[in-house]
Amino acid sequence: xxxxxxxxxxxxxxxxxxxxxxxxxxxxxxxxxxxxxxxxxxxxxxxxxxxxxxxxxxxxxxxxxxxxxxxxxxxxxxxxxxxxxxxxxxxxxxxxxxxxxxxxxxxxxxxxxxxxxxxxxxxxxxxxxxxxxxxxxxxxxxxxxxxxxxxxxxxxxxxxxxxxxxxxxxxxxxxxxxxxxxxxxxxxxxxxxxxxxxxxxxxxxxxxxxxxxxxxxxxxxxxxxxxxxxxxxxxxxxxxxxxxxxxxxxxxxxxxxxxxxxxxxxxxxxxxxxxxxxxxxxxxxxxxxxxxxxxxxxxxxxxxxxxxxxxxxxxxxxxxxx
Length: 322
Ligand SMILES: NC(=O)c1ccc[n+]([C@@H]2O[C@H](COP(=O)([O-])OP(=O)(O)OC[C@H]3O[C@@H](n4cnc5c(N)ncnc54)[C@H](O)[C@@H]3O)[C@@H](O)[C@H]2O)c1
Description:
- 38% of the residues lie in helices and 28% in strands.
- The chain is built from eleven helices and 14 strands.
- The chain has helices at 13-25, 39-48, 60-66, 81-90, 105-118, 132-143, 169-185, 267-271, 276-279, 282-295, 303-317; strands at residues 4-9, 29-35, 56-57, 71-74, 94-97, 122-124, 149-157, 188-196, 208-215, 220-226, 228-239, 243-248, 252-257, 261-266.
- It has an eight-stranded mixed beta sheet.
- Strand 9 and strand 10 form a beta hairpin.
- The protein is globular, with a radius of gyration of 20 Å.
- 48% of the residues are buried.
- It binds nicotinamide-adenine-dinucleotide (NAD).
- Nicotinamide-adenine-dinucleotide (NAD) binds at residues 9-15, 35-38, 41, 60, 75-78, 80, 84, 98-99, 125, 127, 172.
């Protein structure tokens, strides 16, 4: 396959902000068709990327029937996502989705198992894993040995707002931080957590999360997330053998090496830009997905891997009180 022919289902905000531009910038990739239920968004996006009228759809089934696509980006909210993704997989397409991978682990595993049956490539947009400062810091720590301890904190100022999509905020958003702990430390063996509400009650979600997780690598991970915080604040700590990294993705990482002082590395040094689409891993996740299709390799954040992250999210949620 010399070129990966891509179709999109979804022409909403996230797709337009990061996925369309990243797909059209990726070599050996061609955007050929777009589908959205909303004709205004469909036409605005298709006009922007020069997709002809005959390749615009409001029914994704017609797009799958008529177009010769290799891969489909399904970029829409988790509700109603799984049946559409299953149809794409059954049609033999490689599939990219945003997080969360469905509404729950049953949906995540249904998509993962179908993808395994169809032997197609899949990718979930856990973009933090592809962020330049994160990848640099992680690889520097691993050069000296295994990671012993990691912390992932992800806070937001959401007082008075309620959770996204009326669903658990751990599933829809804090899942990024849970996924980072798995990426750094392996598979969870033992989970202790406290999940509770403070200051206001949200429908279908708590707003404070703390977890202590022992992983099969022998390392321990700590998760903290408050959604009644003073601002959005995301930070990862990674401790290894005589080395620690303190990461504020996507902006910068501090690397502390025993006896050697502190190295500060910024997104701009590593990527030549401060454009978050590039520094926060969105362009890189698409490049990785397309490269895996072309080279018959398994994407890092494939559906099976993402279903394991969803399993850990649900294990933490079981500690909810009140
Ligand atoms: N990785 C990140 O950092 C990050 C950040 C923000 C959002 N997201 C995720 O991105 C996803 C999309 O969020 P968004 O804000 O772009 O949503 P959105 O509502 O702006 O866009 C979704 C689009 O999908 C279309 N759509 C829905 N059902 C459809 C169907 N059956 N057929 C065709 N089109 C359909 C809608 O009309 C809409 O245009 C969410 O899952 C969200 O969690 C990820």
